[in-house]
Known about the structure:
The complex is a heterodimer of chains A (308) and B (453). By secondary structure, chain A is of the alpha/beta class. Chain A has helices at residues 51-54, 78-84, 94-103, 121-130, 143-155, 169-172, 192-202, 216-226, 256-263, 265-274; strands at residues 21-27, 30-35, 41-44, 47-50, 61-64, 70-74, 111-115, 135-140, 162-166, 182-187, 203-213, 230-248, 283-288, 298-304. In chain A, strand 5 and strand 6 (70-74) form a beta hairpin. Mean pLDDT of chain A is 90; it is low at 267-278. Chain B is α/β, with parallel strands linked by helices and 453 residues long. Chain B has a nine-stranded mixed beta sheet with strand order 11-10-9-8-12-13-16-14-15, sandwiched between helices. In chain B, strands 2-1-7-5-6 form a five-stranded antiparallel beta sheet, with helices on one face. Chain A: It is found in: Nucleus.
Amino acid sequence: MLPTDSTKTLSFKRCITEGDLVIVYERHDVMKAVQVSEKGVLQNRFGIFKHSDWIGKPFGSKIFSSKGGFVYLLAPTPELWTLVLSHRTQILYIADISFVVMYLEIVPGCVVLESGTGSGSLSTSLARAVAPHGHVYTFDFHEQRAASAREDFEHTGLSSLVTVGVRDIQGEGFPDEFSGRADSVFLDLPQPWLAIPSAAKMLQQDGVLCSFSPCIEQVQRSCETLKSSFTDIRTFEILLNTYEVREGHLPSWQDGDGVLASLKGCKKRQRSTNGQENSRPQTVLARRMGETRGHTGYLTFARLSCIR
Amino acid sequence: MLAYNSEENLSGSQNRRITWDGCSVLLDINDGDRVLFARLTAGSKIKIGDKNCSLQPLIGCPFGSSFQVEVGAGGPFLAPMIPNAEGNGLSEKTDDQTMEECRDNRALVDNNTAQSLTGEDIDGMRRKGATGDEIVQALIANSATFEKKTAFSQEKYRIKKQKKYAPRVLLRRPFARSICEAYFKKHAEKIGFLRVDTLSLLLSLANVTAHSNVLVFDMLDGIVTGSVAERMGGTGYVCNPHCGTTPLPISIVRMFNFSDETCKRILHASLTELQPSTGENSTSDDQLVDECNIKEQQNKDTLSSSAKDMVNMEENSTANMDTDNNVAASPKSAKTVKAGEKAPPETIKHWNENGFSSLIIAAPNLDAWDVAKDLVPLLAYSAPFVIYHQYLQPLATCMHNLQSNKMAINLQVSEPWLREYQVLPSRTHPHMQMSSSGGYLLSGTRISSSDQN
């Protein structure tokens, strides 16, 4: 997924080969991750697609099915991966992920600790941020979930940047070997306050911690615990508004036909396609999407106090 | 100072945790009241209130250290604060928080007679060498109303007096996060009203990572260029394209403590060089070049005037966050490698042949589509792009055009919404004031044009 391997770097010349992970794009909200294999076949509502037709085409190509339907084949990115990965738990989405990476001050070379791993949505972006020489150590107490995450990182080519451990961080804390070595720590745990003392031990001087909690009571309790060894404690909520954009014809109110037509959406569209009676130019209209995520979680950040 | 030089050497110069001579730092004065950039040298000074203090004591200290202004025999100076020994009567008394507050403000009369210490008394104390903390203590002791205040307003009173009589300076590492926040707070117009969460989203959507080749059209004085370079750790390339002969100013880049290796990776090139002269789809490219040439002519005047601005900024750039020019600048210290050199021909050739792996456009005063139509074709197929704008409409139009010209898919206009909370026992609520817009992003993925039908 990441351009650490120069043969896999995106370029005009980079073509799809056997074994590549591709994102099959139908629509902005319908995508699927597929591993390309010579004999593979993808079937969806647009028809049947043979992987063998994909090999040798550049990424970003439009591919037609036997029935004439089409999809696009995209190179995977952490953003696309977040949209297609299998949800084993509630995952973090792009707005929260981006903010966490920036606020934790993660740059190439950093050592980052995370718990729990969950579905690995955040871990993928953390890996991108610490590459090429840093490392993400992520822990989940659920053995099977950790194994699935490990498989995913293998799949996305991130296993050299992410190590998944099975451990109950709330109960046992982070392993001592990381003591004083972490640049940043991320907690997504039901009782983060139990893990905070251990997180403080792991962090380097001036290192930053983030705790993600859906409920304000969790935040309240975490902040109480943070006070003893952290400063600069700040809590945020971040959401994403997305916009729907379309071209429309807004007729003059004196244009009787146009006004009536505008009352019936579909007839209006027919008129505008023959383009004759559009005395007014088409306008591009934008509005916020009708329904949106109203809450994901609270993000609390804190910096290890400078003692010594 | 105490001996701080332990650990380290884990992650190279980009992640140094102790300041050095010539290092760029962010100084947070009185808990965010004022944030300014400075370069630490033996001669640099900072003015806080009416006092000039040397920044010398800050050299060699760990980031995150706090200092308090004290007045000694040799005048005011910055003294390191010992954290946790903060119990100088100034620390918040939060242990009684569970206790229900029973006091209220019914007995308070605002007639300006509550404080019995006069300005002269305070000056007198100062002359006798009282510390800032001692003055604050005295003010509290001589306030007739202090004891009647609620615990919360007692705390407020302490903090207010502390800020005035014992101002504090917190030493921060300049990161994209802190630099963007500092600018957004004081000079949002200089970075086109780009809020830190929007910047973070932009970097994600553009898939910026080590070894990328990122085309960054940055008219925000380098905040985007610097943030992108920060994510690449001295690998790959950041290319700033420009029309005409003058590259755009990127002076904010100097506030990041970039290594020479990272600086070397920030290059500029003109649009004509970047557009392949011959190629598979030559007709459309030729058209683009022609258009660009025309535009070059038209833009000459505007570009050169922005270059003048750059010079003005450069003159006080170490202090350009702070309108009062409080930091005595010691500019152009021993920096050997400068960021933003001209791209060598072989690198341009590499870009021409392979395309860029990401594109970011941040030109809040230009038409988004006008820029995008020339720059999106320079992207490798399936590569992501992100366009920042402080207004929605130009992005909506641009999205529509990209769609109808079949240049990109996965198009989305988004706008992050960020709210900060006050978290205190029984007093948790969102902040009373918030920024209502941090700008808009149009993101998408370039598609291969070869098989369009």
